[in-house]
TrEMBL record:
Name used for this protein in its record: Putative YccA/Bax inhibitor family protein
KW NAD (keyword) present: no
Keyword Membrane: yes
Keywords linked to the UniProt accession: Membrane, Transmembrane, Transmembrane helix
Stretches that traverse the bilayer: 66-99, 106-126, 132-154, 166-191, 203-223, 235-255
Superkingdom to which the source organism belongs: Bacteria
Any coiled-coil regions, as ranges: none
Pfam assignment, any one: BaxI_1
InterPro entries referenced in this protein's UniProt entry, alphabetically: BaxI_1-like
Amino acid sequence: MRTSSNPAFRNLPTSPGGYARFGDAPAGLGGAFGGGPDGPMGTAGVADRPLTVDDVVQKTALNAVITIGVGVAAAILLSPILGILGFIVGLVVSLIIIFKQSTSPALVLTYSVSQGLALGTITGFLEASSNNYAGIGFQAIVGVVGVFIGMLVVYKTGAIRVTPRLTKMVIGAAIGVVVLMLVNLVVSFFTTGGIGLRDGGPLAIIFSLVCIAVGAFMLLLDFDQADQAVKAGVPAKFAWYLAFGFMTTLVWLYIEILRLLSYFRGD
């Protein structure tokens, strides 16, 4: 399986050397993988059966809906405390999931709820700050959905093939973007506007477009990683882990699209 730019998708168990594929069951397990002396197919528990595309789609959709729903509520409540709490909890939970390679539904759902609180609070305060920003949150969501569908079509049609070289390029670009963000943040402590990557000017617009492009290609790599996981026959419980990976990319895209829209709709 290829290495993804998304840290949440790294080191998933694979076959060979990991979990068996359909039809590759070892002796004595024929019943659990397609019939045989041990019993009919489907006797294995849900956690033991191989992952399917539906598993990934359902878990990802559930988490996305939860994040949006909580985000709408947070935008209405406009509580800074809830927003800060969401950021902190989201960061801690994401680190736990990534480093422990956790497939816990509770942790993944907690991450989605926390991101909803954080992003909803930011969006709510942005919309409340000026009439120019009315409806910007909905537009950002539409933008994310558009990028998601577009990259899915690109992946399924093979218009852009995910190769080891492309993977390395996307990872390198993502690291570069994050480094520039950190540099801009540090410089902003000493000079107004930092190095101009987030001040709403022409350079900031270009940088946001680059960030969105990197996020889109990260999404492309995530599609491939999920596809490889399904083909490798990893256990169905890893659908939660994959859903978490998709959510981290979608959150990245939402933030960058929201920021770009704010540049064009600002005073």
